[in-house]
Amino acid sequence: MKIIVNRIIVKATCPYCGCLCDDVEVTLEDGEIYSIKNACPLGRMKINSATSNVRNLKYLIKSGNDKIEVTVDEAVEETANLLLSADKPILYGWSNTSCEAQRLGLKIAKILRGVWDNTTSVCHGTAAIATAESGIPSATLGEVKNRADLIIYWGSNPLEAHPRHFKRYSYYSKGRFVSNNARRKMIVIDVRETSAARLADKFIQVKPNSDYKVISTLHHIIKFGEPPERKAAEVNINDLMEAAKLIKEAKFGVVFFGLGLTMTGYGYCNLDALYSLIRELNRFSKWVTIPMRGHYNVTGANIVASYMTGFPFAVDFSTGKPYYNPGETTIIDLLYHNECDLLMSVAADPLGTLPGEVVSKTIGMKIIAQDPFPTPTTEAADIVLPTLICGVETGGTAYRMDGVPIPLKPILKSRLNLLSDEELLKKILERISWRR
Amino acid sequence: MRKIILTFKGHGRPVLVYNISPSVFRSKSLDQLKKLEVKSGNKTYQLKDFFIIEEEEPVIEPVETIIIENSTFNLKRIGEKMDTGRIVVNGDAGMHLGAYMKGGEIIVNGSVDDWCGAEMSGGMINILENAGNFLGANYIGSLEGMRGGVIKVEGSTKDFTGMRMAGGAIIVKRNCGSFLGYYMVNGEITVEASSGSETGSRMRGGVINIYGSAEIGVGFKKVGLNYITSEGKKLTLHVFRGDSIESGEGEIRIREVSK
Amino acid sequence: MDILIENGVFVERIKGRDPIVINAERKVILPGGVDLHSHFAGSKVTLGRLLRPEEHRLRHQFGNSGNHIGTGWATPTPFLCGYLYSKLGYAKIVEPAVPPLKARHTHEEMRGIPYMDKMSLLLLGNSWIIMDLIAQKRLKLLEKYVLWVLWASKTYGIKLVAPGSGEAWAWGKSITHIDDEIPNFSITPKDIIYNLARVNKEIGLKTPVHLHTNNLGSPGNYQTTIDSLKTVENLGLRDGDSPFIIHLVHAQFSSYKGDSWKTFSSGSEEVAAYINSNSHVSFDLGQIIFSNTTTMTADGAWQYNLYRLTGGKWINNDVENETASGIVPYTFKRKNYVNAIQWAVGLELALLVKDPWKLAVTTDHPNGGVFTSYPVIIAWLMNKKFRERTIEKINSKAKHIIILPSIDREYTLFETVIVTRSAPARIMGVKDGATIGIGKEANLAIYDLGDPERDLGENPVKLIKGLSSANYNIKNGLIVMKNGVPVQDFNGVTYYSGGVNESEELTELVDYYFKEYYTVEKENYIVQKGEVMHPVNVLEEVFK
Ligand code: SF4
Ligand SMILES: [Zn+2]
Is the CB of residue A303 less than 8 Å from the CB of residue A399? Predict the structure, then answer.
C-alpha cells in the first residue's frame, strides 16, 4: 500500500509575543503540523497548542455546582442575558485576539454601557499614561535594525520573553547602516543579571525600585556633564558616567523598556523620566524608545481602543459616553471599589493574573470567560465560551510592539467545531442589539 | 438662606452625584431637587432614590448651603464644577470632590478619595481628615492641575498632591505621600509635617514649603536659607531651586532633607 | 428647477414610482464638498489621540447613540469624522499622509468612517527604494515600483513630505536646502521632486504629486517653495482632468519671508505671483484658525523644532525605510505675532491667486485648525468687513505689516463653490463626483443660507451657521444626513491607484529590500482588497 502524504508549507505570523514574527513557516502534513520553521520555542509552543488536549471544547453554563454543556446559541443567549442584566459589566482581556474581535468588544461594551479594559492596565498602561503626559519619541523596529549603534534594554529580559527580538530587530540583526553586531554597542540595565546582560558592553545592576532615581541621575549627567551635587544613595555614579559616555558617542540610540520599568515603583513616573531623557538626547543625536510589549496584540488593543473611543484602555461607557481615568476606570480599581457586578474575560486570565486582593473581590460577581484554553478564570466562570486560537486556527489583524499592523493567518483548520473570537462576539453583539 | 439637608441612604457601589452643587440646587424647588439626575452603575436614578431630602426652614431664597449626612466614599463627584455656595459633607467623600470647582466652599468632616479639587480654579475646600491621591492635580493629559482657590487638609494626603498645579494654594497639616508637586508650574503648597520621595520632581515653577522633612530629587540645587515663623515657632528652611533636569525654576523650602 | 436623482446618479427623467421629494426652495444646492487634504485616519492620528486624552475628555460630541462612539476635536473618532464631514455637506475626503508600512492601519480606520468616499496619498518622499532608484538612474523601474507600491498600499496618489529631510531626521539632522545632498544617498530633494513628478505624469496618476515643501514652517521658506515649484516647470502639463504637475499642500505654511521669528513676515505675494504666472501648480490653503489643535506631519524635523518652541508634548514616530513623523499640540493665538501673520498669509494666498480653479480650501486638518472651521474661512473670503473684524483683534505689530487689509477682493458664492468642490475634485481627478450633471454621481448638499436674492456674504454669521450644518446631505443619491442627524448608514468607496507589474526586475528589487531592510514579509506589507472599504481602482490592476 502506498501512503500519499499531502505536505504543504504555510506562512504564519506567530501569535505569542509582541515581536509578532511574520516569517514563520509551518509545514503541514495532511492538515497536521509536521514542522515549524523560524519560530522560537515560545512561538512553537503556542502554534502547537492547537493540537493540545488541554483546550476548552464545550460551551458550558454553570448550574448549581456543576457546569452543563449547552449549544453555542444557548451559550450566546445566556451570555446576552447576563450582560444585559448587569449593572456595570467589565469586558476585560483582548490582548491575545485580533483587532476585529477588539472592535466588536468595544461596540458591545458601548451598547451595554459597560467598561472595556485591556491587559495594558496591568502591564504597559503606565507607558500610555506617560505618553499622554509628555509624548514618546519612538520609531519602528526597522529603524533600529538599520541604524542603531547603541541599544539599551531597560527592565526587560529579551532573550527569555522575546526570544527573537535580538536577531530580527536589534543587537544581532543586520541593517543598512549597521551591518553586524560588532558595530553595535549594548547596555543592559536591570535589577538582576539577565542573559542579555552577559552579552552587553555594559551592564548596570540597579536596586529594585530605584529606576526613577537612576534615570534622573543619568539625565543630570548627560544634561550638565557632571553628577548631581546630592547623589542618591541607591545609584552607582561610576556606572552611570560610563553609560553616559557610550550614550553620547552614539549616532542612533534606542531604549527598549519592559515590565521592570513599567510595573515597578511609580511605573508611570519611570516612563515620564525616560521619555524626558530621550527628548534630551535628541539634542545630541537620534534617540528613540520602544516598549517591549508582551502579548502579541496588546498594542493593537490600545490602537483600536484609541481610534474607536479616543482612549487606549480602561474605557468606561457607563454614563453613555466614553470615560477614561486610569486609577478609577482600570480593572484593578473598579474591582477593588466593588464597582462591577459582572466580569467578562476575553482571551485573558484575570483570575490567574490579577493580585489576590483584587481577585477575591470577584467572589459573588458573575463571570463569563471566553478562551481557547482552560484557566483559573474559565474554571470559576458561570459561562465558558470556547473559541478557536486566533493566529493559529483563525486570522485577523494584529499590531506589533512598534505599532506596525501585520495580518494573522489561519495556519491550519481546526478539527474542533468552534467559532473564532470574532464570530462569537458578532453573535453576542447581534443578540444584544436585538434585545435592546 | 436656604439650606438643604441630604441624608445618604447608603449604597454598596459608587454613585455619581455631580448634581449635588449649590450652583445646580439654587433656584430649584424641593420637588425638582428630588428628581435631579444621579447615576450609578450604568443606570440613571433620581436624587430621592439615594437620599432623604429635607429643607431647613423653607425660605424663598436661593440655596446657599447643602449638607450631606452619612456620606461615604461611594459618593463621587460632590460639588463638581460648583461656582458658589457651600457644601458640608458629614462623613467621607468619594473621588472628584470639588473637581473643576470655580467658587464657593466645601467642608468635609471626614476624608476624601482621589482627585479632590482636581483642575479647580477657585473656591475653598477644607478636609478635616485625610485626602487621597491627586489632590488638586490634573486629569490625565491636561497640562494644568489646580489653577486657583485653596485646599486645606487637616490630616495627611497620599501621592501626587498638587500634580501640575498651576495656581492657588494647598495646605496640608500632616504628611504627604510621594511626588508632591510633580510637574508643578505655579502656586504654593505648604506641608506642615513631612512628605515622601521625589518631592517637587519635574517641577517647573511655584513654591513648596515643608516644615518637616522630605526627600527631594537630584535636579534640585541649594540656593540659600529662609527664616519663617509657623505657629509661634521659628523655623530655618533650606531653599532649593529646580527641577534643573526640566530646566525648572521651582522652589522648595524645607526644614530637613531626608535621604 | 427640479434636480432628479435615481440609482445614485442625476437623471433627466425618473423611471421609478413615488420618488422622495425635497422642497429646496430658497435653499442653496451644492455638489458634495471635497477635502483634498485632511489628516483623519491612520497611525499618526491615533498617536495624536494617545497623546491627548484631555481633548477627547473635554470634547464629547454627539453621535454617542447605540454603538456609535464620538469623541475628539482635532482627532475625532472615525465615526465622528464621517458624521462631521457629512454634516458640513462633504462627500469626498483625502487622507494625505500614509506611510506604506502602516497603510493597513489607515484602511482599518477609514473603514469606520461612514458616508464619505475616501482617497489617500502615499508618503514616498523619503523612501529608500525610490531614493536608490533615482541615484542609480533606473527610472523605468522607478515607474514600475511606484505603481506597485500604490497598489500594495491601496492608496491613490503620491505625497512628498520634505523630501530627503525625513531621511536626514532619521539621524536627528535636517535638510535646509533642496540642493543639499541627502545623507548617504548622493541625491538631493530636488532630484526626488523632479523624478516623482515625472513618474507621476508618465504612469498617468489621476492627481499630481502633492508636495509638502522642505523648510516648511520656517521663516524665509517662500524661496524654497518657489525653487521647488520651478524644479518641475519643464515637465509641461498632465493629461486628464487635472492638468497640474504639482500640488503644493497647505501653501500657507510654505510662504514666509524673514530670517528669524522676529523678522518673520508674509511671502504670499511672491508665491501667489509665481502661481499666477505659471499653469503647472495647484495648491491648498492650510489656513490657520486661532484655536488649540494637535499638529501632525511626516516632517519629523519640523515637529521637533515645534516641540522645542512650545516645550510641551511631543511624539516622534519614524517608519523604517520610508518616512519620519511627529505630533505636537499647538495653540494658534491671535495676539502672537507669528500666528497672526500665518493667519493672514493663508487668506492672502486665496485672495491674490486669481484663478480659483487652482486652489482648494483646507486647514491641513488638524494642523492649522479643524475642518469644521471651513465655513469661517468661506466667510473671511466672501466678506472684507468680516476679515477686518478679525484683523482688529490680532497682534498689533503684525496688523501693521500684513497686506491683507489692502486686498479688496471678495469671493462670490460661485467662487467659494469652486474652491470647496469643483477645484479640489478636479485636482484629485474625481471631477464627476462634484458636478451636478446628468449621469454624474449624485452627491448634494442643501443649505439654508438666508435670502438667496441677497448677497450671502453680507451676513457672515448667518452664512457660517448655514454652511456648518447642511439641511440635507445626499450621497450617491441617498439621504444620509438631515439637519445634522444621520438618516441611514452608508459607506462610501475607497479610490486607489496602481497595479501589479509582472517584471522580474521589479520582483527582484522589492524582494531585496524586504530581505535586507524591512522587518516584515513582503506578503504582509500588501494590503488586500478585502481590508479596504469598497475598493475602486482608478487605474488598471495589472500592467504589462
Ligand atoms: S519571538 Fe515572539 S513572536 Fe517571535 S516566534 Fe518567538 S514568541 Fe513568536
Ligand atoms: Zn498635511
Answer: yes
Which residues are CB-contacts of C240 (< 8 A; sequence separation ≥ 6)? C204, C206, C429
Measured CA to CA, the distance from residue B113 to residue B128 in angstroms comes to: 13
The strand pairing partners of A33, in sequence order, are A28
Give the pLDDT score at C169.
97
**Can you tell me the distance from the alpha carbon of C235 to that of C358, in angstroms, rounded to the nearest whole number?**
18
Domain residue extents for chain C: 30-497
Residue B127 lies in a domain: yes
Helix (H, G, I), strand (E, B) or coil at A256: strand
* Boundaries of domain holding B213: 114-258
Contact C263, C289 (CB under 8 A): no
DSSP codes, A159-223: HHHSTTHHHHHSTT---SS--SGGG-EEEEEESS--HHHHH-SEEEE--TT-HHHHHHHHHHHHH
Q: Does C102 touch chain A (CB under 8 A)?
A: yes
Interface pTM (ipTM) of the complex? Answer: 0.96
Within an 8 Å CB–CB cutoff, is residue C43 touching chain A?
yes
**Does residue C63 register a pLDDT over 60?**
no
The CATH number of C30-497, from 3.40.630.30, 3.90.190.10, 3.30.420.10, 3.20.20.140, is: 3.20.20.140
Q: Which of B80, B96, B100, B140 to mutate to test the interface with C (most CBs of C within 10 A)?
A: B140
pLDDT tens for B158-201 read: 999 999 999 999 999 999 999 999 999 999 999 999 999 999 99
In a domain, B45, yes or no: no
What gap in Å lies between CA A254 and CA C468, rounded to an integer? 46
B201 part of contact set with chain A, CB < 8 Å: yes
pLDDT band at residue A3 using 50, 70 and 90 as cut-offs: low
Output the CA A165–ligand 1 centroid distance in Å: 8
Q: C312-347 pLDDT, tens per residue?
A: 999 999 999 999 999 999 999 999 999 999 999 999
Ligand 1 neighbours by CB, cut-off 6 Å: A 14, 16-17, 19-21, 39-40, 42-43, 162-164
What lies within 8 Å, CB to CB, of C151 at 6+ separation is: C496, C497, C498, C499, C500, C537, C541
Residue nearest to atom 4 of ligand 1 (CA): A21
Q: Which residues contact B168 (CB under 8 A, 6 or more apart)?
A: B120, B121, B122, B136, B146, B147, B148, B149, B150, B151, B187, B188
Minimum distance, in Å, between the CA of residue C483 and any CA atom of chain A: 22
CA B186 to chain centre: 16
A-chain residue closest to B159, CA distance? A266
Q: Which helix (H) or strand (E) holds A273?
A: helix A267-281
Say which residue, A53 or A345, is predicted with more confidence: A345
Q: With an 8 Å Cβ cutoff, is B141 touching chain A? A: yes
- Helix ranges (H only) for C3-138 are 43-51, 53-58, 78-87, 103-110, 128-135
Q: Taking Cα atoms as reference points, which of C316, C527, C320 lies closest to residue A169?
A: C320
Rounded to 5°, the CA angle A83-A89-A91 comes to 95
- For ligand 2, an ion, list residues with CB under 5 A: C 364
Q: Which positions ≥6 away from A255 have C-beta within 8 Å?
A: A152, A153, A154, A274, A278, A287, A288, A289, A290
Residue spans of beta strands (DSSP E) within C332-415: 359-360
Q: Which three cell numbers stand for residue A144?
A: 533600529
Q: What is the pTM of this model?
A: 0.96
Q: What is the arithmetic mean of pLDDT over C365-382?
A: 97
Query: For residue C302, how far is its CA from the centre of ligand 2 (angstroms)?
Result: 13
Q: Please check the confidence at residue C60 and state whether its pLDDT lies above 80.
A: no
Lookup: cell for A296: 502579541
* pLDDT value, residue C65: 66
Residues in chain A: 436
What does each C-alpha distance from A338 to A199, A334, A365, B38 come to in angstroms? Answer: 47, 6, 9, 18
Domains of chain B: total: 1
